[in-house]
Design goal:
The structure holds two protein chains of two kinds.
Chain A lengths: L2 E10 L11 E11 L3 E6 L5 H9 L6 E6 L2 E2 L7 E4 L11 H11 L4 H14 L15 H14 L4 E5 L7 H18 L2 E6 L2 H7 L2 E6 L4 E7 L2 H6 L4 H6 L1 H22 L1
Parallel strand pairs in A: 3-8, 3-9, 6-7, 7-8
Antiparallel strand pairs in A: 1-2, 1-4, 4-5, 9-10
Helix pairs in contact in A: 2-3, 2-4, 3-4
Chain B lengths: L1 H10 L15 H23 L11 H13 L7 H32 L1 H14 L4 H12 L3 H25 L3 H9 L4 H38 L5 H10 L3 H29 L7
The chains are: A alpha/beta, B mainly alpha.
């Protein structure tokens, strides 16, 4: 089982622009993510949650502390961790299917094989007919589904997602939540997802991490079970209606909201 | 009302983007432009018909048409019009190929590496503001009066816009595009070939289109100085014999070719980088 471990990770913005101390973005974050986990990080804007994901992806290097994958300190991005971006980051010069096949192409997989795998993935994300379309012709929601299919194509050990459903309409969003869980289970990859939606956090996570802002600090870790219940066959609507879901939803709202007021005052 | 008319006229500038699928409201401007052309040619015809200017200075439009037909069939100074045009075109496309082969990698180097930028920037900035005719004599001393010197001068003239547009295209590459590929384990070379270069393509094509225009004017000037064939040479020899109708016919052909370059370049852009105006 793979393990992505953040040990006492702090991040400062690049120092040395005249100020005595560069602002602290993330403060001593400790977090373990295994291939079993679906970790959702939630927090106000400015809590450094996107920075946290960029650290895990290897796009940023911690100012102090250590990030290790299976005991091996990260040296940068790698195909063991696929990233789904807030803005889909698809390549407009490629068709939808070529975008999905892109990670396989980088790895030298032959054209027929990679297009076959990409076509299967497009069917999984519900876009069997979009294969040969230009990505700039697709709606924002369709583009994001192509982006998720592309991330899965590299068979990553960890799936890092930065508000991947943020651009989708409410109905598609609910459907995609279920889809993400199905894919997460099938891929056996650990997941780290950033969101500002409490509903999404509760539906997707096995663990919700609440980040405080200024500096970003882990305020609370909440184990959640709705995702596993969903995968065991309980419909989402039933989970949402449960007393437990409402209790946690209210609790999280209070936690994030109270900090808001604290900052405003 | 005023506002909408202004918008229409901007949309319909001859160099403007095509508006796909929108109903063609801007047509009036096209009509006005056509009317302008007819008026200018008509005025020209009247001036020569009433012999207000001697034909030696301004031959009639008909005389120029006849000269064009003569050029096309019997030719002028040992070559037909097609041969003159072909000579000019082969020079400009030879130079364009050379400039792309040198300029795109140079632009990539400037856009991706501090060393590349440090080394190449002063060279490009030295070359860019120089009028090509200023270094034409030097190039002739170095390379002689053959094809090589003409191609070299044009290539030098169009190199800076190609280098600079490539560099700016590279610098404007989306961070997400690059990060996505890095996360998929792209090597530096793969990043360059699969992400940075295609991302810079719209900018490179725009630079090439501008360079082609600059190159064409340089070419004609270079042919005025030293050539035995080509449109610039044709005009120059005709002028020496005071064959004004051929001079004017040559100018018209030069303008037509330049216009065709623009049309072809724009359709290439639409075909190769259809996304570039959308996001």
């Amino acid at each position: 089982m793979s393990m992505l471990r953040l040990e006492n990770v702090s991040l400062r913005y690049a120092p040395g622009d005249g100020r005595s101390q560069a602002p602290l973005v993330l403060d001593r974050i400790n977090l373990d993510i295994t291939g079993d986990d679906f970790v959702v990080v939630i927090g106000r804007s400015g809590s450094g949650k996107t920075s946290l994901l960029n650290l895990a992806a290897g796009f940023l290097t911690p100012s102090s502390g250590r990030i290790a994958l299976d005991g091996q300190t990260l040296s940068g991005p790698g195909s063991d961790r696929a990233v789904v971006f807030q803005d889909d980051a698809l390549y407009p010069w490629l068709t939808a299917i070529e975008n999905v096949a892109f990670p396989l192409r980088l790895r030298g997989v032959g054209r027929d094989q990679r297009l076959k795998e990409a076509r299967a993935l497009l069917e999984h994300v519900g876009l069997p007919d979009a294969a040969d379309r230009k990505v700039w012709e697709l709606s924002g929601g369709m583009r994001q589904r192509v982006g998720i299919a592309r991330a899965l194509a590299s068979h990553p050990r960890f799936l890092l997602m930065d508000e991947p459903l943020g651009a989708l309409d409410a109905l598609t969003r609910v459907r995609m939540q279920g889809f993400l869980l199905d894919m997460w289970q099938a891929s056996r990859a650990g997941a780290l997802l950033i969101t500002h939606s409490i509903d999404e956090a509760l539906m997707l996570a096995t663990r919700v991490i609440v980040l405080n802002a200024n500096p970003g600090r882990i305020a609370r870790v909440i184990p959640v079970n709705f995702a596993r219940d969903y995968l065991a066959g309980v419909p989402q609507s039933e989970l949402r209606a449960s007393a437990e879901f409402r209790r946690l939803h209210d609790g999280l709202t209070g936690l994030i909201h109270s900090e808001d007021e604290g900052v405003a005052a | 009302m005023t506002l909408s008319m202004e918008t229409a006229s901007i949309d319909n500038e001859p160099t403007g983007e095509t508006d796909t699928g929108r109903p063609a409201r801007p047509r009036p401007v096209l009509w006005i432009s056509a009317a302008t052309v007819v008026a200018v040619v008509g005025l020209w015809g009247l001036v020569s018909f009433y012999a207000l200017v001697p034909p030696l200075f301004l031959p009639s439009p008909l005389a120029v048409l006849r000269a064009l037909r003569g050029l096309a069939t019997t030719g002028f100074v040992d070559a037909t019009l097609v041969q003159h045009v072909a000579a000019s075109l082969s020079r400009i496309f030879g130079a364009l190929a050379a400039a792309l082969i040198l300029g795109v990698p140079a632009g990539l180097a400037i856009g991706t590496s501090r060393w590349g930028k440090g080394i190449l920037d002063p060279i490009v900035e030295f070359l860019r503001p120089l009028p090509p005719l200023a270094y034409l004599p030097l190039v002739i001393i170095w390379l002689g009066i053959g094809e090589a010197s003409k191609i070299a001068v044009i290539a030098l003239a169009i190199l800076p816009p190609i280098i600079l547009s490539t560099a700016s295209g590279v610098k404007s590459a989306s961070a997400d595009h690059i990060n996505a590929a890095r996360a998929f384990g792209a090597t530096r070379r793969q990043l360059l070939v699969h992400v940075i270069l295609p991302g810079a393509l719209p900018s490179i094509l725009t630079g090439t289109r501008i360079a082609l225009g600059a190159g064409w004017s340089t070419l004609v000037a270079a042919e005025l100085v030293a050539a035995t064939r080509g449109l610039g040479f044709m005009i120059q020899s005709a002028a020496q014999f005071l064959v004004t109708d051929i001079v004017i016919a040559g100018i018209v052909v030069i303008a037509l070719v330049a216009f065709l370059f623009e049309v072809v370049a724009r359709s290439v852009e639409r075909r190769l980088v259809p996304w570039s105006n959308r996001r």
